[in-house]
Amino acid sequence: MAGAGAPLAISACTAVTALGPGLAPLRAGLLGRRGGLRPCDLPDMPEGLWIGRVRGLEAVALPPALAGFACRNNRLAELALAGDGFAAAVAAARERHGAARIAVVLGTSTAGIEETERAWARRGPDGALPADFDYARTHDLQSLPRYLRARLGLRGPALALSTACTSGARAIMEAAALIGAGVVDAAVAGGVDTLCRMTLHGFAALELLSRGPTRPCAADRDGISIGEAAGLVLLERPEAAPGAALRLLGAGASSDGHHMSSPHPEGEGAVAAMRMALASAGLAPAAIGYVNLHGTGTRANDAMEDRAVHRIFGDGVPCSSTKGWTGHALGASGAVEAVIAALCLEAGLVPGCLGLEAADPEFRCDIAIANRAAPGLNRVMSNSFGFGGSNCSLILGRG
Amino acid sequence: MSALGGRIAGIGLLGPGLPGWAASRPALAGEAPWQAAEPVIPPPALLPPTERRRTSLAIRLALAAATEATAAAPDRAGIETVFACSNGDGAIIGSILTALHDPAGVALSPTQFHNSVHNAPAGYWHIAAGSPAPSVSLGLHDDSLAAGLLAALTALAARRRPVLLCAYDAPLPPPLDAARPTGPAFAAALLLRPDPGAGPLLTARFQAEPAPPPPTGDAPGDALDALAAANPAARALPLLRALAAGRPARLALPLAEDAHLALELTPC
């Protein structure tokens, strides 16, 4: 992986999405074309929305020694650790490499700000926040990586990345760079982001939310459904994980330098990130078998992305967005979709966009709207774009 | 681990009584007295007026240091960036939290919401610099500067392209300030280029052990040391003081309670 070292093994991965905890419900949902979006039933949210809520999250308990980290985001992180043997795989890696040689690099857009929203509602008559509000371990960005570092008994560097909707993908790219530079031998990487009032009301103020379940790439698409999710991968050099079949082959990032919340209309930044990812993997566009689009379901994003992807791939590579299943999990979306890319590689699957009878006729890419069997699928690109003009593309493959 | 390293090719600074790197060198080198004064945060001249109007204090703070550090760089549009900040845009976060609890109903400002993302200063910087280069924004509470240095030097090692590190933090408004006290607004930026090259050499090594207590310096416990302890970005002050004095230094920046980044500065 030029620019970030050799290809890395993904020796474990897991996700929690609106479909449920772990990979099994996500895989079953993708194969059975059943999504996880539901009408919003959280209090004090904008009216008439659909969301991707993780059921039962409020009941997840943190270990007593780490109770100070308790917030919706770390409950989601805790739930993720239990899935697919992830915590056990990290423990095994800790035995192999030593705790100091494993980094924790995680992306989030809002960390534990949902906890601050709750504390705000409990302000005293003088306006002061309640004394039990733990800013450093919930609100601050460090909350997420510091929680998982402590929970997993790791001693390597912890980093919290926050680049809006590319955070999870960018965290995986940074983790790979830390291994490539020899700072560590392995990394727990990914993203965790949770539903909060700030996010839902904020996107409502921008008039970017769909009135029903989001339908990316539809001609009459009308916006985003926000979801909450966690996506985690364990990265190591391939020689340290001989049993691992999945690889992170390449990563690329760029900045639009155009506008804070609108993408460059021709997708210049998106094109640059995809080209950098291909170059870092040493691959031609034709080597990619499926592009998992950022595909938020907004008018502007999906049209821009179609143009950008077409510039590189033409109509020769099937593309789709999986946000119809999970919603847009913001700072976790890039990590969750990297995990979905891994599932697609394992299952030989190109999942067609959910809830569409036809793709936008203006689009020129090969947009899949039904699931396609892809038994030889070897390499998948996953795109993430975000506010601030942040772009990131990852390429995953089979070893 | 082997050490990461790079050459310091530009420096930016804005803090109390520290109105820019060039203007602050004598005070940092101990050649002139340092006097506390409110930092004057200029509007970002590089931005077009429509964008400039939308910038908040935190964005202007970050862009001031980034602008100074790259003022002499002929390749500003090709420089990767790392923005490191603990508090984010406290004024905007506080205002949004207030609006979310308005008994008269919730009405958020769209501009405030998109400016609330942690990478807002990075977004404005890349518009200002006309730069398509990769950028990352991060935070790690008191250890944000160390996290930023680690990310910047790792990017330099990975891609051998110049990287601008910009660390900035401003105080939070009430009532958040009681939960997270922060000293006066402070921003420091370093333009790092691959070694070999011109400029002082900065190397860093991650150490999985607590940072050793700071060595007794030539001015222990002075006012600038107090400033460094009060704002996560001001933790750059010991490094900036060594750079101003043109002297070598070994510094330890905590990166969690049980680990640190060991820095070594070699003047050119």
UniProtKB/TrEMBL annotation, chain A:
Q: What is this protein called?
A: Beta-ketoacyl-[acyl-carrier-protein] synthase II
| One term of GO molecular function | 3-oxoacyl-[acyl-carrier-protein] synthase activity
Q: Which GO terms describe its biological process?
A: fatty acid biosynthetic process
Q: Which residues form the Ketosynthase family 3 (KS3) domain?
A: 1-398
Tell me its family: Belongs to the thiolase-like superfamily. Beta-ketoacyl-ACP synthases family.
Is Flavoprotein found in the keyword set?
no
Stored CDD domains: KAS_I_II
Instruction: Name a single GO cellular component.
Output: cytosol
Instruction: Give the domain of life.
Output: Bacteria
Organism the protein comes from: Roseicella frigidaeris
Q: Which UniProt keywords apply?
A: Transferase
Which Pfam family, any one, appears in the UniProt record? ketoacyl-synt
UniProt keyword Transferase present: yes
From TrEMBL, chain B:
Q: Which InterPro entries match?
A: Ketoacyl_synth_N, Thiolase-like
The terms under GO molecular function for this entry are: acyltransferase activity
The Beta-ketoacyl synthase-like N-terminal domain extends over 33-203
Q: What is any Pfam family matched here?
A: Ketoacyl-synt_2
The name on file for this protein is 3-oxoacyl-ACP synthase
Question: Highest lineage ranks of the organism?
Answer: Bacteria, Pseudomonadati, Pseudomonadota, Alphaproteobacteria, Acetobacterales
